[in-house]
Amino acid sequence: MRYFFAIIVFLSLFFGCQKNQELTQTESKSVYMDYSNSEDQFTGGINMIPITTSKGIFKVYTKRVGNNPKIKVLLLHGGPGGTHEFFDCFDGYFPNEEIEYVYYDQLDSYYSDKPNDSTLWTTEHFVEEVEQVRKALNMDKNNFYLYGQSWGGILAMEYALKYQDNLKGLIISNMMSSAPEYGKYAEEVLGPQMPPEVLKEIKELEAKEDYANPRYTELLMTHYYSKHALRLSLEEWPKSVELAFQHLNPKIYLYMQGPSEFGMAGNATLKSWDVSDRLKTINTPTLVIGATHDTMDPKHMEWMANELPNGRFLLCPNGSHLAQYDDQKVYFKGLISFIKDVDDGTFK
């Protein structure tokens, strides 16, 4: 009887401790991934946001990941005409730091409405589109971080030049502040790194404006993209990057950027874009991310960081244009550190 009583006491203590441990774990559980009190729980964080334009109202795709009222990062993809799929790898880093972030496909990109109206393909339109998205997602100067890569970096700079009072932090990734300087870098530095016969053939095709020739794409993919866009063999490119290229809208891309990443060619509307002399007016804490093997001049990007009153430069020594993949550890360590430093007030 005495042994039976002892067993009862032991089991009571054991299960009691286990229950208290479960309560403690429940009480301390993070609400970062809790969507239960959100209207977008039904869609898993997806919101199709209506955008008012001169040509009517259209909807753009956004998908929120996580909850953090102090840190909300809006991701601006490249292209123009790219997709949020370039940023799928952010899922491997931001959630662990409890950073809230929002995927977003700009108007005329794959997951958003496609009015296919070139009068809307201007930096002015896209800046106002970002502003409408910001308001719809309740982002403000206390929590709003704007991240832009490549063309998204152009858009982020343009937004900051008009609406910096709404920003808590700004990230410019893999984009110079001058399209002409970008073209000059491609022409004078990156081009000569190719085998002479390859560069000669590329130039001959460009002189004929034969950009649709499969040979032109083949030469760039083999000798340029695999060395300066994403430094992996084409067979190793992540599926998300493949999808982003498959889903890219060629009409808006050709209209604004031109037929290749080898500088801006043809009649690209961004060909003369340059805000270099205005960077000093952006007072928002800003991180500029460059990469040694990028299509963008890393020295120019370091200059940008120094020109910005509150700029910081991050160099990815093994990275290229998509350094979030080919120099991932350096990229995300620096990006997360910047966001955390701004958030806790230690940014310098």
**Helix proportion:** 25-40%
Helix-strand category:
alpha/beta
Q: What gyration radius follows from the Cα positions, in whole Å?
A: 24 Å
- Name the helix and strand elements from N-terminus to C-terminus, one letter apiece: HEEEEHEHEHHHHHEHEHH
Number of helices: 11
Number of separate structural domains: 2
Q: Strand order, biggest sheet?
A: 1-2-4-3-5-6-7-8
Beta strand count: 8
- What do we call the CATH topology of the largest domain? Rossmann fold
| Gap from first CA to last CA | 71 Å
Strand composition percent:
5-15%
CATH superfamily of the largest domain: Alpha/Beta hydrolase fold, catalytic domain
Integer average pLDDT: 91
Low-confidence stretches: 1-11, 19-26
Report on the architecture of this protein.
The chain is of the alpha/beta class. The chain has 2 domains: 1-30; 39-180 and 270-344, Alpha/Beta hydrolase fold, catalytic domain (Rossmann fold), CATH 3.40.50.1820. The protein is built from 11 helices and 8 strands. The chain has helices at residues 2-27, 123-136, 151-163, 179-190, 196-207, 214-229, 239-246, 250-256, 298-307, 323-326, 328-344; strands at 46-53, 56-65, 72-76, 100-105, 144-149, 169-173, 286-291, 311-316. Strands 1-2-4-3-5-6-7-8 form an 8-stranded mixed β-sheet, sandwiched between helices. Strand 7, helix 9 (298-307) and strand 8 form a beta-alpha-beta unit. Helix 2 packs across helix 3. The radius of gyration is 24 Å and the shape is globular. Residues 1-11 and 19-26 have low confidence and may be disordered. The active site is at 150 (nucleophile), 294, 321 (proton donor). One of its GO terms (molecular function) is peptidase activity. It holds the Pfam family Abhydrolase_1. Residues 73-327 form the AB hydrolase-1 domain.
